[in-house]
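The protein record quoted in full:

***
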Amino acid sequence: MRRSLLAAVLAATILFPGAAPAQYAGTFGGTPINAASDNVAAGVATATLPAVAGKTTHICGFSITSAGSTAAAVVSPTVTNTISGTMTYTYASVAGVTLANAPLVVTFSPCLPASAANTTIPVSMPSLGAGNTNTTINAWGFLY
């Protein structure tokens, strides 16, 4: 088993230089991290993966869940400070404060590094408007 894993890492390193550390972060020295927003009512929700001196933050994915609003709304959540620049998504809220919105779950494979070492990666979503009582964001990744 160990030889198979080692062979896979070596093959990935030779074929895709730089890919192995992100792919096998938990096994070879990366530190897993996560961040969560509080439960936000009718306001901006943000989960920020931390920056650490001498390390690069990587985002592997995020999820956004929420309840509806008084009126339907469409907003644009963003992921910023990645090597890919700002990524923008579309998220819709249903009309009805006791209804659930469809979750938005995004994973990155391979994980995306921050634009520079010692840089945070925030995932942020604008307010869903009046009547919205619950919005939460969870983000996960690692430091390497």
